[in-house]
Design goal:
24% strand, four-stranded antiparallel sheet, 6 helices, 144 residues, 4 strands, single chain, Nuclear Transport Factor 2, Chain: A, alpha+beta
C-alpha cells in the first residue's frame, strides 16, 4: 500500500511540474535554459513553439547558457512594460495579439553595467508563456 502511495505522489509531482513549465515568463525562460542543458527536446520545443528559427538549436542555446556560467549564475527578471522604452512597448503591442512579457537574462554578478544581456519576448498562449522572439542588446537600448 505504501509503495502505491509513493508512486501516486511521484506521478502527481511530475504532472504538476510538467504543467507549470510556462506558468510565468521568467520561469519559462529558465525552464528553456535548463531543458537545453539537459538536451530535453520535448520541453525545449514546447517553450520555443514554432519559433526555433529565431531562437536557434537546442545545442546553440545550451552552449550560450554554459558560456554565461550556467543557469545558477543568471538572473531571470520579468520587465514591467512601464520600464520599457515607449517605442519598444508600442512595437510589441502591434506585433503580438496575445498578452506578452519581456524577460531579461543577465549575470548575477557583473561589474560591467554596459554589457549585453538577453531579452526574451514571451507570449502567453493558452495559459503558458512561449517564445515570441529573443535578442541580445544593451539595457539602455531597451529600458527607460
Amino acid at each position: 500500500m505504501k509503495k502505491l502511495l509513493y508512486v501516486l505522489m511521484a506521478g502527481l509531482v511530475l504532472l504538476t511540474s510538467a504543467c507549470s513549465i510556462g506558468s510565468s515568463p521568467d520561469k519559462a525562460v529558465e525552464a528553456l535554459y535548463k531543458a537545453a542543458l539537459k538536451n530535453d527536446e520535448e520541453t525545449y520545443n514546447k517553450i520555443v513553439g514554432g519559433n526555433s528559427d529565431l531562437v536557434g538549436s537546442i545545442d546553440m542555446v545550451a552552449d550560450m547558457v554554459r558560456e554565461m556560467g550556467g543557469v545558477e549564475k543568471l538572473n531571470f527578471e520579468t520587465i514591467k512594460k512601464k520600464n520599457l522604452l515607449k517605442e519598444i512597448e508600442e512595437d510589441l503591442d502591434e506585433q503580438y495579439q496575445n498578452p506578452w512579457e519581456v524577460v531579461m537574462v543577465s549575470p548575477k554578478k557583473s561589474e560591467d553595467e554596459d554589457e549585453e544581456v538577453v531579452f526574451w519576448v514571451m507570449e502567453k498562449v493558452d495559459g503558458d508563456y512561449l517564445v515570441g522572439e529573443v535578442d541580445t542588446d544593451y539595457k539602455d537600448d531597451v529600458l527607460k
